[in-house]
Each structure stands twice: as structure tokens, then as C-alpha cells.
Amino acid sequence: MTETAEATGGAAPRGGKRGRKGGLKMTRIFTTPGVHPYDEVEWERRDVVMTNWRDGSVSFEQRGVEFPSFWSVNATNIVTSKYFRGAVGTPQREWSLKQLVDRVVGVYVKTGREHGYFATDEDAEIFEHELKYALIHQIFSFNSPVWFNVGTKSPQQVSACFILSVDDTMESILEWYKEEGIIFKGGSGAGVNLSRIRSSKELLSSGGTASGPVSFMRGADASAGTIKSGGATRRAAKMVVLDVDHPDIEEFIECKAREERKIRVLRDAGFDMDLGGKDIVSVQYQNANNSVRVSDEFMRAVESGGKFGLRARLTGEVIEEVDARELFRKMAQAAWECADPGIQYDDTINDWHTAPETGRITASNPCSEYLHLDNSSCNLASINLLKFLRDDDTFDVERFVKLVELVITAMDISITFADFPTEKIRDVTRAYRQLGIGYANLGALLMATGHAYDSEGGRALAGAITSLMTATAYRRSAELAGIVGPYDGYARNADAHKRVMRKHADANAKLHTFEPMAQAIHAEATRQWEECLGLGERNGYRNAQASLLAPTGTIGLMMDCDTTGIEPDLALVKFKKLVGGGSMQIVNQTVPRALKKLGYQPEQIEAIVEYIAEHGHVVGAPGLKTEHYEVFDCAMGERAISPMGHVRMMAAVQPFLSGGISKTVNLPESATVEDIEQVYLQGWKLGLKALAVYRDNCKVGQPLSAAKGSDKDKESKAEEQAVKVIEKVVEVERPRRRRLPHKRPSTTTRFTVGGAKGYMTASCYPGDGVGEVFLKMSKQGSTLAGVMDAFSIAISIGLQYGVPLEVFVSKFVNMRFEPAGMTDDPDIRMAASVMDYIFRRLALDYLPYEERAALGIFSAAERAAQARGEDPAALHEVDPEVLAQSAPIEEVPKPAAPKPAAKPEPHSTIEALESHMGRTADAPLCMTCGTKMRPAGSCYVCEGCGSTSGCS
């Protein structure tokens, strides 16, 4: 796609051509001369209607949008609702992906022309066509701020990641609050190291005692929480770092763990402490990720069991000595309790620092993948790796290299036109031009090629791809330096930058690959590093940083990726939205491809896929060899990848990244504090830059696991035994039918669902609940009329035999089939089917509020009350006699047992996984649409609407 003409001396790069001085000479890879990339795609119109699964309300609607036919419904929904600009319903609103891509790419091409990036106008046109092709074919994507801002009247902010700085003055601390608020308002995240602030054990010049950094964290936390709830694009995300030698380090380590204990006490006292609950706001430090910055000196003291000194901030003198192992233990204990603090390895980070003469790297962005200078930012882009796997199971190395060239060129151009939230961030970013190219779909690529995620072969392939990506990125950066100049801070950091490049190349030389695919990628990576070092020696480098691995939450969904960032597959069964409404659970398309690669025949593959669809895992699948189970191991489920399997994968790619990796190492609920200590210790030994852990079910502020503890298990078994004993003694009478009287009150409802009209008549026992339902939707004698009559009779008989209405509601609500869509009922604006509408209407008419609320069914008035922050229950005066639901049957004495909750229908992949696991996964509900989110690196992403909990 791109070839280069150097501005000064030396031969053109391998396979390149010379252009005019100061410009890139481009060649086509994806596109065809004389054919616009849009003309090679089949486009179709779609309607985007997104609902909140909690109450059925329509959260977004735009009809007639235009997308390529191969884009999924989910990707279409997310791009339309998140990235299209202009007020909905006005002519200014974007309605086609073409408009979105034109808006963004147009700014890149215009800036590239103006600043001498291209040799000729023809080269600029080729760059434009290649970029548009790659974007509409989901081969890569820029990070979200690019889609939000570029080409609009808003500031052209392109960065998602920011690092701030705080000095030991009140003015600096207040400026930190302000800068963080500005960044949060724009929907991005920021990180900061508070270690310069004097500890609570040190004196002020006035003679008083300093407050310490933890006290100032309270104010910043409250600010983040306020701005988050004020309607920012995404939840405020922030990272707070403290050095391990800070005298207040123990208070910092334990501050969130103490709050977690407080949450549990308040929850047990009846307060609403779920994520987004009205009482959780009273708890502190919940809007930040905390990380301890540890040194090699400290980690060696942990290994040897020695003492470690805590140092005064102003003088550097040791004011207290602590037992290193005890302090390390407290870190692991706190992380065991509440997942914080994470850990950052200071000496490793700064050993790979390209600009140490300017300053040390002290902090990171909220997800820990961007690590560079204070008061700087980084714009990200991620490549869809699965797009380079050919049908013959080989990796398209040539196109991958050319795409990296294209993306790095575009990303560097963006710094030239970008706006920044503060002058300090603008100056540092323009001077060092930090970029963050990365990838998504690694987990899917490994599975598709028959590699287990936790295997030597899988790690070798991942390492080779990452090495090739970073080598190509820095080689292109060196070419750009020869055309438009190196970054401003390069001269003073040239020796250090070139040393880091040699470290990357040395790590590549030590990489061991085992199979032809990885060997071919590794061979090209070696050639790219050789060329990179040579060009860098002559030209310098355009960018101080080039690569990292971000969560790729929203943009991963935009590219229809099965897996995000460096993550393995979440589960083998996915939740897929269908054109025209509705959804279904499907087995990942990667699975049959992997089975074919492993040598299974079509009929064997079909049987295995059917087994997976039913069970959610491969254990016991017919004909599947046990040695192949590991290929299908996932992040969750029956065969979850071990914690150290995640750590080893991170270690395999870290030497080939300029920055870090956004990833949380998940541990089971049964994990011990010692297990977390080992993860943190091994992360240091294996050369990681940062690491975060999460123990299943450790936090209260989100839906908890339904798995019961040992005591509860014993109680449950005891209750079951008591029931069994009594059932042996007491004879249970058969249920009796209670018919309705000849004259009974009834209500007839006329309704429309997706354009289909119908009538429902519900008859009641006088003052005693519904007992009969009649439905009419077609002409007498038609098949549909007959089916609806039979269905009505079956439901009516069930009600008269004592089946509670809420049982029918729980079974039929959310059932999906055509006709579906908009209704003419103000209480139920969207219905997934006629059955969904009918039983929602019956629930609203005949079920008490408490039972409807448990099923997520609310009237328009109740939803309005919720939006005002009021309790909808206050709208109702409960009268148990009036609310009797069906003909009662005579009670038989038996022990009271808890009533099983209706099993909700899945609305996301993680909920589909839960249905197979038999328990609830630790993941928050999306604050926008109510769908349960799924992990994406260190954050969470909503499959329903694309919202994220972090800065990806």
C-alpha cells in the first residue's frame, strides 16, 4: 500500500520508489485504480432501534441508515448511536457509514497534503482510498475520540489516554482537579502519580502536618463521580499511582479495601450498594483504579525477606523502615478483597523508556497500556488480526505490513491537526508524538489456527505478530522522520531511543517459533527490525512511542471482533442480534474453523458444534479428542484459562511493545492471598510493565456470583431433606380446576405489534385475578387464528388450574419472532413478538408492582418516576386481596422454601455464558441500556450499545 521516498540521502526502502522531496510514494494494496472503494461494496439500508432491557424503553432510534451488507447488526447499532453526528431527526444527522468515514478521512488527507506527507496528489488519493477501504472493511479502527470529534465543529481531540502530573503545592493539586475534570468531560481517562505530595508523616513549612496524597484523592474521586453522573460520553476513568517508598503507602494500599468492607456492612443493613445504586455514592475511592509503583529494589527485598525504606518526599531521607514481605502481603490482601491496588514495575517501565533525558515515566492511563511522560497523551488504533488469516490458514504478512504503514502514517498526521485539553498536554504530545497501534482478535486467531491460548505455540505466534507490528511501526516512523523530521525531543534522547530499539530487536532475535505460520511472520519481523535500526540511525524517529495493547472495547465491536485486545475468547457461545429484530445464541464461527484445522470431518464438526451449543463447552463433546480441549479454553466457563496462563501470554508480547498491556488477570473466588502474591511476583520476573488482578466475586458494587458458599450449601441441602421427609408422609392432592362464573368482568385490548393488529380479551374472577385470555389476530379459519385460539385455551386452563400468572409472564416475556417492533401502547413501546407484548400487558394489568419489578416490567409512569429519582412503588397502594392472581388450590402443609426466580433470557454473550455456567458472572450492568457488560482488557464493554467503563 505505501512505499517511501526519503527526503535526504540513502536508497529508497526495500521495494520503494522515490517521490518528490518530503513525500511518501504510495502504492495500492487493497484498492483498484479507477474504482472508488465504496463502489466495491454492497450497501443496504437498515433501521436501528435500541431498547433498554431493564424496562423495555427505546433508548435510541434512527431508521434508514446505510451500511455494508456484511456488517453485523450490532456493529451497525453501535456506530449509528455512538459515532454518527448531528441531532437525531434533523437533516444534519449523519445516516451513512460513508458520511462518517468521509468526515474523518477527509481531515487526515487534507492535513497530510498541507504538511508534505505525500509525494504527489495521486499519492494522497491512494492514501485516501486505502484508508477508506480498510475502515469500511473493518480491517482496523481508530479509537473512539477520532470518530466522536474529527471533522466536526467540536475540538479535534483524537486521544483517549492522558497522563497528568501533580506537584507538592496546593495550586498544583487544584490544577490537577481541574485538568482531570476537563478530560472526563470529554469522555476520556487520565492517570497521575501522587508521589511528589508530602506524606501525612511530614511537616509543612508552617509547622503543621501535611494532609498526604490519600486525603486529596477524596476530592478528586468526588469530582470524577460528579462528572460521570453528569452525562459524559463514557464513565469517568482514572488511574492513581503511588510509589512503594512513599511513607503513606500502607494507607494508600488499604484505602479501597476499607471502603469495600464498609460497602458490605451497608449492604447487609439494607442500603442499595450495587454499581449505580443510590447509596454507593457515599463510598469513597470508587472512581479510580489504584496502582502501586514498585522498584526492583523493593521486589528483591520481598524475595530476600529484607527491610525496605520509606522516604521523605522533599529530602529523600529514609524516615521509616518496613518489612518488605509484610508490605507486599498487604498489597495482595487488599487486591484479594477488592481488586485494588494493581502493580506497576517502575524499573522495567523506565528501562524501555525512549525519552529518559526528558523525564521518568511515573504513571499510566487508567487501563495501564499507555506509559510515557507526564502531561502527555496518546491516540490509539487497533488492527483486526482475523482479517489477515487467509482461507488456506496462512497469515497475509505482506498486507499486514502495509496496513501497519498506513495506520502509523494516519496516526502521526492526526497529532498535527489534533486539539488537546490543556496547553501542557498539547506541547508534550506535539514534541514527542506518542502513538499506540495495537490489535484485537488475537484470541480468535489463535483458536482458528488450532493454537491453545496457554501454549508455547500460541505465545510464539502472538509474540511474532506483535514484534512484526512494532518493527514495522518504528520503521515507518523512521521513514517519516526522514520526510517531515523526527520528534522535537529526539535529539536529546537519541542514544536512549536507539538503545530501546536495539532491545526490541534483541528480544525478537531470542524469539523461538515452532510452526511455518509463526516462522514466516518472525522472519519478516527480523527484516523489519534490521531496516528499522538502519533508517533510525540515519533519520531518527518521528514518534517516541509506537505500540501498545488497548482494551478495544467499543471499536472491537465496531470491527465485529470475537475477542478484544490480547484477551482469549470469553465463551464458545455468543449472543448475536438479527436483522429485523430479535436475537439468538450461536456457537462462535471460529470453532468450526478450528475443528477443520485440527483435522475433523464435516459430520464430526457438526456434532461437536451442536454439543457446544447445548452445553456451552467442549468437555464430553462427541468425537473430540481430549488433547484438543485446550484449543477451546476460554476466559470463563467449564475450562477457564489459569491465571498464570494469562500472565505468560502477556510476558510473550511485552518485549515487543512500546507501552503496556490493558489486561486484568482473573482468579477464581477460591484463590488465596498467596496466589495473588505469586501473580504479582511472576509478573515482575517475566518482565511485565503493569499488572492488575480480579478475584471472582470480590466486589459488592456489581452483580454478585450466584454460587453459594459452603454454609449456604449446607442450609440448602438441609431444607431439601426436610421437604423430602414431609413429602413422604403427606399425601398431596391433585390440583382442581376453578371455573369462572358465567358473568365475569373482562377487559379487551386492541394492540399493534410491528404493524400486525390484534385483540386480547382478559376475563377475571370477581375481585380475584385473571382466569381466562382470548386472542384474535387473523380471519376466522386461518392457521394463525387457529393457533391463537388453541394457545388462548391452553393459557386459560392453566390459570384455572392454579398456575400463577407470573409463571406465564416469566416464560413468554422476551420471546422473539416476527412480527416484532414498535407498538401503539405507551407503556410498551417495543415488543420482541406478539407473545412478548401480550404477557407484558397482562403483567401490567394484573401483577403487583413488586413482582413486575423483579421481571423488569414497568409502566410509562413508573419509568418516568425512576428517571426523576423517585421510587415507583410509591405510585401503588398494595391490596393483597385485590391482587390475587388465579384460582387458588388448597395448601398442603410443607416447609417454606425460597421461591425460585424466573430465569432471565440472555441479552449478551456474558449472559448466555451465565446460562451455561449456572451462576452469575461478575460484570456490571450497562448504565445506558441495561445489558450486562463483558470484560475488555482492564475495562468492561457493553455489547448492546458499545458503552465502556474505561478509556478504550
List the keywords:
ten-stranded mixed β-sheet, three-stranded antiparallel β-sheet, single chain, 952 residues, alpha/beta
Written account of the structure:
It is a single chain. By secondary structure, the protein is of the alpha/beta class. Strands 5, 6, 7, 8, 9, 12, 13, 14, 17 and 18 form a 10-stranded mixed sheet that branches. A 3-stranded antiparallel sheet has the order 19-20-21. Helix 14 (456-484) runs parallel beside helix 20. The relative contact order is 0.10. Residues 1-23, 887-907 are annotated as: Disordered. Residues 741-845 form the TSCPD domain.
Structure summarized in a few sentences:
The chain is α/β, with parallel strands linked by helices and 952 residues long. It contains 28 helices and 25 strands.
Task: Sum up the overall morphology in one term.
Answer: globular
Low-confidence stretches: 4-20, 229-234, 702-732, 878-903
Mean pLDDT: 86
- How many β-strand runs? 25
Q: What's the story with the biggest beta sheet?
A: 10 strands, mixed
- Measured on Cα atoms, how large is the radius of gyration? 30 Å
Note the gap between the termini. 28 Å
Share of helical residues: 25-40%
Strand content: 5-15%
Structural class: alpha/beta
In DSSP terms (H or I, runs of 4 or more residues), the helix count works out at 28
Helices, strands, pairings?
Layout: E1 2-4, E2 24-26, E3 43-51, E4 58-68, H1 73-82, H2 97-114, H3 121-136, E5 140-142, H4 144-149, E6 161-163, H5 170-185, E7 189-193, H6 213-229, E8 237-243, H7 249-268, E9 289-294, H8 296-304, E10 307-311, E11 318-323, H9 324-338, E12 342-345, H10 346-351, E13 376-384, H11 397-417, H12 423-432, E14 435-440, H13 442-448, H14 456-484, H15 490-509, H16 516-539, H17 554-558, E15 573-577, E16 583-587, H18 590-597, H19 602-615, H20 643-653, E17 664-667, H21 673-685, E18 690-695, H22 710-729, E19 746-753, E20 756-764, E21 770-776, H23 783-800, H24 805-812, E22 821-825, E23 828-831, H25 834-846, H26 849-854, H27 860-867, H28 909-917, E24 934-936, E25 939-941
Parallel strand pairs: 6-7, 7-8, 8-9, 9-12, 13-14, 17-18
Antiparallel strand pairs: 1-2, 3-4, 5-13, 6-13, 10-11, 12-18, 15-16, 19-20, 20-21, 22-23, 24-25
Helix pairs in contact: 2-3, 2-11, 3-11, 5-6, 7-9, 8-9, 9-21, 11-14, 13-18, 14-15, 14-16, 14-20, 15-16, 18-19, 24-25
Pfam family, one: Ribonuc_red_lgC
Family: Belongs to the ribonucleoside diphosphate reductase class-2 family.
Domain Ribonucleotide reductase class II vitamin B12-dependent N-terminal: 48-138
